[in-house]
Amino acid sequence: MKRFKSSITIGEVIRYAEVSNDFAAIHFTERADGKKPIVHGMYVMGIAQSLFLKECAGYWITDYEMTFLRPVMVNDSISFHFEQAKSKVIVYVYQAHDQLCVKGSMIIQEISRG
Description:
β4 (88-95) and β5 (99-110) form a beta hairpin. A five-stranded antiparallel sheet has the order 1-3-4-5-2, covered by helices on one side. The model has no long low-confidence stretch (mean pLDDT 92). The longest helix has 15 residues, at 41-55. It is an alpha+beta fold. The protein is globular. The protein has two helices and five strands. It starts with a strand and ends with a strand.
């Protein structure tokens, strides 16, 4: 499967916060060490699921898990990569210079036609 490149803007973070009601300051303000705001982990996971389902429309996700190794910051250039083996999909999210920041898995099931 191809890699999908993305960058999450502060506008997207604000829209996600409005839906999720998660307005924690860490998602909106630059930290004292100068680092950018951190994107909601559930939003990153949701993007991964949406990208996979858009590419593989005949499936639905029955279970998932994600491990965040490094925070995804607002405006970071990130890419999503998927490896499918039967009913399990491994998800990798990379930051610039191919630094792995999120690893996860999704259990998928084919949509029955009938």
